[in-house]
Amino acid sequence: MNATSRTRLNQTPEWAALGKHREQLGSSHLRQLFADDPERGTGYTLRVGDLHLDYSKHLVTDETLTLLRELAAATDVFGLRDAMFRGDKINTTEDRAVLHTALRAPREAVIEVDGENVVPAVHAVLDKMAAFSDRVRSGEWTGHTGKPIKNIVNIGIGGSDLGPAMAYEVLRSFTDRSLTFRFVSNVDGADLHEAVRDLDPAETLFIIASKTFTTIETITNATSARDWLLTGLRAGQEAVAKHFVALSTNAGKVADFGIDTDNMFEFWDWVGGRYSYDSAIGLSLMIAIGPDRFREMLDGFHLVDEHFRTAPAEENAPLLLGLLGVWYGAFFDAQSHAVLPYSHYLSKFTAYLQQLDMESNGKSVDRDGNPVDWQTGPVVWGTPGTNGQHAYYQLIHQGTKVIPADFIGFAQPVEDLLPGLVAQHDLLMANFFAQTQALAFGKTPDEVRAEGVPEELVAHKTFRGNHPTTTILADRLTPSVLGQLIALYEHKVFVQGAVWNIDSFDQWGVELGKVLAKKIEPVLTEGQGGEQLDSSTAALVSTYRELRGR
Ligand SMILES: O=P(O)(O)OC[C@H]1O[C@H](O)[C@H](O)[C@@H](O)[C@@H]1O
């Protein structure tokens, strides 16, 4: 379906039918929906690979799900999906294919962009990464002074940082614990300072990760890292080759920086930054977990790609999760979406999803540039659930907002957990199950009274319930399961962008601030050009200069 020929989303009969259905649903309570259907808890579940997905605690009925699927059909979600997998240039504002799925395609697959099969190049880079990772892991790759590498510092930002940094944390129990990994992203010098202050430059490898190799934060940090290294080694430019490698699509800029392009690991413009950590951008992760584990992770991604590509609508997990988000945004005025993992290792998971989701779907014009008058991407937020319970869960339970939430947990603790700590896992998971139960069913005033609570406190101790949650449960956190989870979210985001008719693969909204920062920097340093600033910014800049003694 051509975007231009498309009926505006909120003028489709399917949208109207959902609106009417929402009115009929009124304030129906999950308590009632569960009472009406004793099979609901087992019926509203899906299995994708190793992921057990329970969506029974959502404010939906069979009819809601049917109507949502009809909306997906009317907006041709599967048509756009097929175009993405085929390599069509569905990122129209940048005229690019969107082929992160090719990064985890098997060697024998054929996926063409502009008539060329990209799969052999993907595997050639993976092989080059594997060979390099093995050399670093075995100690064969030595630094300028002949010492083996012990520390790996990834310098990148956005998609060139969040993915590897998140995945390194998630898979920590699979990492080579004799190596130290650090991730530097912020242009605040404190980030690099804290990352390198206790490291020996002779044993340190910098991985400069930047799709464009023009991102000011990354190039600034990379330049400072090079100075730190060369000063520490008392060496000249010749030492760079053994201590710097680049991950990029831009060989010219890599060479300009002084990195040998033999030490560059390539990827392509059809990989979006926030969809890139399974490309060369994952090199630090591959060094940490080893090439075999990295491949297991790619297989996990691929498993869910295949599920999304082939599963019928009724069983298609990314479709379902995407549509549930559309439902709450449009018809419950939900503004945000919480992701609450019950695993310490997933501490950076939600931060990663923030870029994936909010940079993809934080748009307010459709594919043709017309303003949308329906909600698009939610604010994604959350931290590991047990900590959240003692902080912001109060608002989810008793506040005034509708906050759909994903709960992610694992049946087994990680394998290398100290034996004395294994018993804590049941307590962790008891909380995991208790919270979705409390959120769904709450506690009625009568239940509170029955506990002998004085009348004046009953309202305060009542839990309205009816808060929608998805539970995702897997046996254990493995590289494959991580790949499955990320692909699930990638495709969920895709589904929502398709329904909302927005380009989920551009990010024009990040540009303005970059341009203005470039103009403001000389005002801060030289004091010139301040008169062109608005009065608020001019006054702030002048106060800053005063405080800096300028
Ligand atoms: O990888 P790079 O080219 O350095 O880009 C790093 C990041 O910065 C940009 O501003 C984009 O908003 C992100 O999508 C991107 O991941």
From TrEMBL:
Pfam families hit by this protein: PGI
Tree of life domain: Bacteria
Keyword Cytoplasm attached: yes
Pathway(s) the chain acts in: Carbohydrate biosynthesis; gluconeogenesis; Carbohydrate degradation; glycolysis; D-glyceraldehyde 3-phosphate and glycerone phosphate from D-glucose: step 2/4
PROSITE patterns per UniProt: P_GLUCOSE_ISOMERASE_2 (PS00174), P_GLUCOSE_ISOMERASE_3 (PS51463)
Protein EC: 5.3.1.9
Keywords from the UniProt entry: Cytoplasm, Gluconeogenesis, Glycolysis, Isomerase
Catalytic activity: alpha-D-glucose 6-phosphate = beta-D-fructose 6-phosphate
Active site residues according to the UniProt entry: E359 (proton donor), H390, K514
Gene3D superfamilies found in the cross-reference section: 1.10.1390.10, Glucose-6-phosphate isomerase like protein, domain 1
Keyword Cytoplasm: yes
Compartment(s) where it occurs, according to its Swiss-Prot or TrEMBL record: Cytoplasm
InterPro entries, A to Z: G6P_Isomerase, G6P_Isomerase_C, Phosphoglucose_isomerase_CS, SIS_dom_sf, SIS_PGI_1, SIS_PGI_2
Primary localization: cytoplasm
NCBIfam families: PRK00179.1
PANTHER family for the chain: GLUCOSE-6-PHOSPHATE ISOMERASE
Assigned protein family: Belongs to the GPI family.
Name of the protein in question: Glucose-6-phosphate isomerase
Encoding gene, per UniProt annotation: pgi
